[in-house]
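Try this one yourself first.
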C-alpha cells in the first residue's frame, strides 16, 4: 500500500490481483457530500462510480448500477469499466480480490459480525485483501454486546473494552481463506489531519471513501 497524491488530494493505493483499491483522506473533502474532487484526482468519471445506502449489514450489490442506490454495504465487480465505493468515518473499508473479480466492503462491527467478509470473499474467490484506515484498538471502546459478537475469534481481538477492529477483519479474512492481507495500520480517530472520525467529530464528521475497480479500463 502506497501513498499517492494529485492536485492536492492524497490517498492510499493498494494493488491487488487484476484490481486496484484506494482509500481516501480528508484532503478530498467529504466524499459522501461530493465525490468529484476525489474522482478527478483518480482520473475516474463520477457517473461510473457506484455507491449504496449503507445500513451496517452484510448485503452486497452484484454488478452495481451507478444510477441506483440500493441498501447495501458492499459492491462486487466482475468486469472493468466501473468502480464501487463505500463511505467510512471509523468503520473499515476492505477490498478483496481474486479470479472472480473485486469487492469493496464497508466493515463496521455489525457488518463484520453478520458475515460481510465471508460473503465478499466467496463472491470473487478472493485470494488477496487490503484493509484501509479505520478506528484502532487505541480508541475503540465498546460494550459487552460487541465484545460477545467476536468472542469466538479467540484472544487478541480485544483488551478490556477496547476492540481491535482491524484484527477482527484480518481474522475474518483468514477464516474465509484469504492469507495475503495488507493493512493501512492507521487510526482515523488518532489522525485528525488525515481522516474524518465519527468518534471524534460525531455528527459533524465527513466521510472518506474506499474504492475498488478491475484493471483494464478506467473505472
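Now uncover the answer:
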Amino acid at each position: 500500500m502506497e501513498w499517492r497524491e494529485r492536485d492536492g488530494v492524497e490517498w492510499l493505493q493498494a494493488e491487488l490481483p487484476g484490481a486496484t483499491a484506494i482509500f481516501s483522506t480528508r484532503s478530498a473533502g467529504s466524499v459522501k457530500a461530493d465525490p468529484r474532487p476525489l474522482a478527478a484526482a483518480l482520473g475516474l468519471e463520477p457517473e461510473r462510480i457506484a455507491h449504496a445506502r449503507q445500513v451496517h449489514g452484510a448485503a452486497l450489490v452484484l454488478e452495481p448500477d451507478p444510477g441506483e442506490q440500493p441498501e447495501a454495504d458492499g459492491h462486487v465487480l466482475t468486469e472493468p469499466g466501473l468502480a464501487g465505493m463505500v463511505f467510512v468515518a471509523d468503520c473499515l473499508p476492505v477490498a478483496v480480490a481474486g479470479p472472480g473479480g473485486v469487492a469493496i466492503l464497508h466493515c463496521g462491527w455489525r457488518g463484520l459480525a453478520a458475515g460481510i467478509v465471508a460473503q465478499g470473499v466467496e463472491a470473487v474467490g478472493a485470494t488477496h485483501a487490503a484493509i484501509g484506515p479505520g478506528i484502532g484498538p487505541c480508541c475503540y471502546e465498546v460494550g459487552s454486546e460487541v465484545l460477545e459478537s467476536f468472542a469466538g475469534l479467540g484472544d487478541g481481538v480485544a483488551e478490556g473494552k477496547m476492540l481491535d477492529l482491524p484484527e477482527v477483519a484480518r481474522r475474518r479474512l483468514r477464516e474465509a481463506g484469504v492469507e495475503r492481507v495488507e493493512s493501512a495500520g492507521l487510526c482515523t480517530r488518532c489522525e485528525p489531519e488525515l481522516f474524518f472520525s465519527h468518534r471524534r467529530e460525531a455528527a459533524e464528521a465527513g466521510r472518506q471513501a474506499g474504492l475498488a475497480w478491475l484493471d483494464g479500463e478506467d473505472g
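Discussion: The longest strand covers residues 9-16. The helical segments are 36-42, 109-114, 116-124, 144-149, 165-175, 198-201.
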